[in-house]
Amino acid sequence: MILTIAKREFRSMFMSPLAWVILAVVQVILAWSFFSSIDVFFSIQSELTTLKNAPGVTDLIASPLFELASIVLLMVMPLLTMRLISEEKRNKTISLLLSAPVSITEIVLGKYLGLLFFIVCLLVLITLMPLSLAMGTELDLTKLFSGVFGLFLALAAFSAAGLYMSSLTDNPMIAAISTFGLLLLLWMLNVSNASATDGNNVFSYLSLHVHFTALLRGILNTRDIAYFLLFIFGFIVLAIRQLETQRLQS
Amino acid sequence: MSSLISVNNLTRHYGDFCAVNNISFELAAGDILGFLGPNGAGKTSTMQMLSGNLAPTFGEISINGIDLLDKPKAAKASLGYLPENPPLYKEMTVTEYLQFCGRLHLITKTQLTSVCDSAIERCGLGDVRHRLINNLSKGFQQRVGIAQAILHSPPVIILDEPTVGLDPIQILEIRQLIKTLGETHGIILCTHILPEVQALCSRVQIINHGNLVYSSSIDELLHKQTTQYEMSLTDTVTQDEIASHDAFISVEQIDNNNFIIDSDLNAEQLIEYIVKLKWGLSRFTARQTSLEQIFIDLTVGDIDMREKNMVETS
Known about the structure:
Number of helices of chain B: 11
Helix content of chain B: 25-40%
Number of domains of chain B: 2
CATH architecture of the largest domain in chain B: 3-Layer(aba) Sandwich
Largest sheet of chain A: none
Oligomer: heterodimer
Structural class of chain A: mainly alpha
Largest sheet of chain B: 6 strands, mixed
Order of helices and strands of chain B: EEEHEEHEHHHEHEHEEHEHEEHEH
Number of strands of chain A: 0
Distance between the termini of chain A: 26 Å
Radius of gyration of chain B: 24 Å
Structural class of chain B: alpha/beta
Shape of chain A: elongated
Strand content of chain A: under 5%
CATH topology of the largest domain in chain B: Rossmann fold
Number of helices of chain A: 11
C-alpha cells in the first residue's frame, strides 16, 4: 500500500515538467562546477606532486561538488516537497486517500518514499560525474561513497522537513518558503559559533551542515548518521500527527 | 441481516459551532437513502464523517458491521465515496487513475484490468479512457469520480451531489446507474435536486442545522392524504367567483384557467360539485405532497423563526 502511493507520487512528479526542469537545472549548474574544478585541478597538478600527503582527486573535485550540490538542493528541495500534501489538500484529492482503506501513516510514508525515489535519481546523475573520472585516474571510492551517502541523508532530511511543512498548509508556496527558511536556518546554525567547531556546542550539534561535512570528509560517524535519522523520523512523525489532528479539527 | 451503515448519536462540533447534532440512522442493503438539507445544514460534514475524512466529536459509526473508529481500515474497505469535489489526480489518464484507486482498495493485480474495464463501461468512459483527466469536461470528470466510487463494488456507496455538472442525458444515465447499483448496494445520495430524490430514493432524510428533522420512506411521503387539488377550466372564471363558494377553503390562481383549490370534500364530492357549476372542468388532479413542500416547510419555517428570535433578542 505504501508502495502504491509512493509509485503514484513518483510518476506524477515526472508527469509535471517540474521534476525534469529541476533535474536539468541542477545538472547544468553542477556540471559547470565539476568542469571548472577539473580545470583548477589540472592547473595545480604539478604543484600537488611536490606536496607530501597531497589531497587527491576525490578531495579536490568530488567533495566540493557534493558541497555545492547540497547548497543548490537546499534551495531546490522545498520546490519538490511543497506540493506533497498541500496540493492534495487544496485539490481535495486527500479525501480519496482518507476514505480508502489506508492509514495516515501509510499515506505519509508512501509520499516520503516516492520522494526518496526521486532523490535517488538525482543522486545517480550527480554521482556519475565524479565517477566518470575513474576512467582516467584512481578514485578514493570509500570517500566518494561516504560523500554520496552524506548527500543522500541530507536530502532525505530536507524532504522530511519539507513534508512536514507541506502538511501544515494548503498553499504550496507557503510550504516552500517555510521549508526553505527552516532548512537554511538549520544549515547555518553553526555560523554564529564559527569558532566553536569542537562539536560540543549545542548550535553546531543541531546544525545540518556540521554533520554533513563530517560525512563528506569520509568520516562515517554513528553520531552524524543518528542525527540525520532522528531528524527524518522526527519530522515524519510530526507530519503524521499533523494530519491526524486535522482530521479531528478541520 | 444487520444494516450496512448504522450511525448512533453522531455529533460534530467545530469549536463552539455544532455542525451535526446527535443524529442516528441506518441504511440497509438495497436502500437508496436521499440525504437532503439546505446549504450548511451539516450534510457534507456527515458524509465526511461516514467516510472517515473527519473524526466525530462523539457518536458511533459502523459500516457493514465494522466500527469505523475502532477498525478504520477494515471498515473503509467496504466503502465507496464520491465527495463534493471529485478527488481526481488531473495529471493522470482515466485508466491510470482508476488503476491507482483499485490498488488503494486492495484489488489484486490480476483483477485490476477487468475491474477497471467494468467501471469504465458502467460510467460510459470508454471513449476517454486514455485521455488526461485534466482535459476532460466537468461532466466526464464527475463520471470518473463516480467510477472511482463504484470501482471495487463496495457494499456501501456514498455519493455527494453526483449529478452536478452533467448534461440532461448524462443525468438520466447516471440516475439509471445509481438505480441499478441500489438494487445490490446500499447508497447514500446527498443532493439539492429534489426531483432526483423523488425519482431515485427509497428513503428520505432531511437535515437542518445539524438535526435530523425528517425521515420517512418515499412511498409514505407520496401517498400522504392530501386536501389540495389542481383543476383546469375551459370557461373564464375569476378567482373571486370560485372563492365565493363555501366548498372551497382557499383558491389560488396559477394562470388564466388553472387553479389550486383546498377543500374539505373528498375528490368525488368535489368533482360532482364543480361539474354542477358548469365551469367547463377539463382537468382535475389531486396534488401530491411534494418533497419540495416538505423540504420548504421544514427548513424555511425554521429560518423565519430564527430570524424572529434574533430580532426579539436584539
